């Protein structure tokens, strides 16, 4: 779609050509952080990536039922994208569900803009730069998401978060 070869994309984002090939062939399921890294070279937001094949809906959708929210997470991490069909979306609003032990990946995430969220239930460990924070239900966060960051559920309970960040 963007006229890039696997080799050129791999070089742009600092991964091997075989990694791009395996992702394209569904031979590997990349972590959220790895997928964001690959998509940064196109560029396309992770939300737009998962909704490219959704049909145009007329008129503009206002309400999104739970079953209409695509899950863009992997492994024990569910990331339900709210408003996926909304064309020209300027932000990604996510309902995040971290099973015990789930994380966004071993690699730190970085993307343009700011990120904010509210812990609805459970606990989450948030690392931003070299600072580690432990958030519980009712706690929130807001930071420049160009700073390296990651999320990890270190408790034995499910953690649910509602978060927002800009669509890139």
TrEMBL record:
Record keywords: DNA-binding included?
yes
Task: Check the record and name the Pfam families matching this protein.
Answer: Cupin_2, HTH_3
Q: Where is each HTH cro/C1-type domain found?
A: 2-49
SUPFAM superfamilies found in the cross-reference section: lambda repressor-like DNA-binding domains (SSF47413), RmlC-like cupins (SSF51182)
Gene Ontology cellular component annotations, sorted alphabetically:
cytosol
Name of the protein this chain belongs to: Cupin domain-containing protein
Q: Which CDD domains match?
A: cupin_XRE_C, HTH_XRE
Q: InterPro entries this protein is in?
A: Cro/C1-type_HTH, Cupin_2, Lambda_DNA-bd_dom_sf, RmlC-like_jellyroll, RmlC_Cupin_sf, TransReg_Diox_bact_type
Q: Which UniProt keywords apply?
A: DNA-binding
Task: Supply the PROSITE patterns for this chain.
Answer: HTH_CROC1
Write down the superkingdom of origin: Bacteria
For molecular function, the Gene Ontology terms on record are: DNA binding; DNA-binding transcription factor activity
């Amino acid at each position: 779609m963007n006229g890039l070869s696997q080799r050129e994309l791999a070089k742009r984002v600092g991964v091997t050509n075989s990694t791009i090939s395996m992702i394209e062939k569904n031979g590997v399921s990349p972590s959220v952080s790895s997928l964001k890294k690959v998509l940064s070279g196109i560029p396309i937001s992770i939300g737009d990536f998962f909704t490219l094949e959704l049909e145009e809906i007329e008129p503009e959708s206002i309400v999104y039922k739970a079953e209409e929210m695509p899950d863009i997470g992997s492994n024990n991490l569910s990331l339900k994208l709210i408003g996926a069909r909304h064309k020209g979306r300027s932000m990604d609003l996510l309902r995040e569900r971290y099973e015990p032990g789930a994380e966004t990946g071993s690699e730190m995430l970085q993307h343009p803009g700011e990120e904010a969220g509210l812990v609805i239930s459970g606990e989450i460990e948030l690392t931003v730069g070299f600072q580690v924070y432990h958030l519980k239900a009712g706690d929130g966060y807001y930071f420049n998401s160009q700073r390296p960051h990651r999320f990890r559920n270190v408790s034995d309970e499910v953690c649910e978060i509602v978060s927002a960040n800009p669509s890139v």
